[in-house]
From TrEMBL:
InterPro entries: AAA+_ATPase, ABC_transporter-like_ATP-bd, ABC_transporter-like_CS, MacB-like_ATP-bd, P-loop_NTPase. The lineage of its organism: Bacteria, Pseudomonadati, Pseudomonadota, Gammaproteobacteria, Alteromonadales. Transmembrane segments: none annotated. It comes from the Bacteria. PROSITE patterns: ABC_TRANSPORTER_1, ABC_TRANSPORTER_2. SUPFAM superfamilies: P-loop containing nucleoside triphosphate hydrolases. The keyword Kinase does not apply. This is ABC transporter ATP-binding protein. PANTHER family: CELL DIVISION ATP-BINDING PROTEIN FTSE (PTHR42798:SF6), LIPOPROTEIN-RELEASING SYSTEM ATP-BINDING PROTEIN LOLD (PTHR42798). The keyword Thylakoid does not apply. Keywords: ATP-binding, Nucleotide-binding, Transport.
Length: 229
């Protein structure tokens, strides 16, 4: 579970101060699927980056599975991120020089796992996204939808409690986007909490909750969730 209390973010340079997120309270329980919507520049990525421990908040408290994040040093924070959080991005962020197997294995190299354990996890994750037969391919040899599936496998291989997605279907045509969305719903059904930034309102209504960010103000949008199938 994650809980944010009076959390806020201000970016400061010598001359300019930008209030990217106004103070907000939020609780996300294990197993929820949260869509984050809002206009460009409203603070969605900032929110996701703070949630994923990629950036620090400037005020407030952030509790992640019982740990208050601001009390942790950089090393402890990195460990927590590696163990609890998986990321997927609009641009997939695969390493072009590495084959699919090595891309998925990459985050596991920071864990205390044997080669055999790593292999098992990589194979299971690729199986889960339907790409078990593509281990030796390189990213450029796959379609966009398949590359995003590899990125999802890479996130899943670490068995994260939270999967954070920043417009995961933004670079995909609608058919591929539907495939990725179905996969995310299936992963959520199996217990992984998902927080996903999206511009697609149809996708947002498939989530169990919608949060809107507007000019740095975060609010809950009441909606009648479609059943997550
Ligand atoms: N590193 C930074 N330094 C200064 N200002 C920043 C920084 N990162 C973001 N901002 C500002 O914070 C605000 C929120 O940016 P953010 O990237 O979170 O918006 P967004 O909703 O994700 O936008 P988009 O949908 O276009 O990706 C913007 O005004 C942006 O210019």
């Amino acid at each position: 579970m994650l809980r944010m209390s009076k959390l806020a973010k201000t970016y400061r340079t010598d001359t300019v101060k930008t209030r990217a997120l106004c103070p907000f309270d939020l609780e996300v329980k294990q197993g929820e699927f949260v869509a984050v919507v809002g206009p460009s520049g409203s603070g969605k990525t900032t929110f996701l980056n703070i949630t994923g421990l990629l950036e620090n908040a400037s005020e407030g408290e952030y509790w992640l599975d019982g740990l208050e994040v601001s009390t942790l040093g950089d090393k402890a924070k990195s460990r927590l991120r590696n163990e609890k959080i998986g990321f997927i991005f609009q641009s997939f962020n695969l390493i072009p020089e590495l084959n699919i197997y090595d891309n998925v294995e990459m985050p596991l190299r920071y864990r205390k796992l044997s080669t055999v354990q790593r292999k098992q996890r990589v194979e299971e994750a690729l199986e889960q996204v339907g790409l078990a037969s593509r281990q030796k391919h390189f990213p450029a040899q796959l379609s966009g939808g398949q590359q995003q599936r590899v990125a999802i496998a890479r996130a899943l291989a670490g068995s994260p409690a939270f999967l954070l997605a920043d417009e995961p279907t933004g670079n995909l045509d609608s058919k591929m986007a539907d495939g990725v969305m179905s996969l995310l719903k299936e992963i959520n059904k199996q217990g992984t909490t998902i927080i996903m930034v999206t511009h697609d309102l149809d996708q947002a209504t498939q989530a169990s909750r919608i949060i809107e960010v507007k000019d740095g103000v975060i609010s809950e949008v009441e909606h009648c969730a479609q059943e997550i199938a």
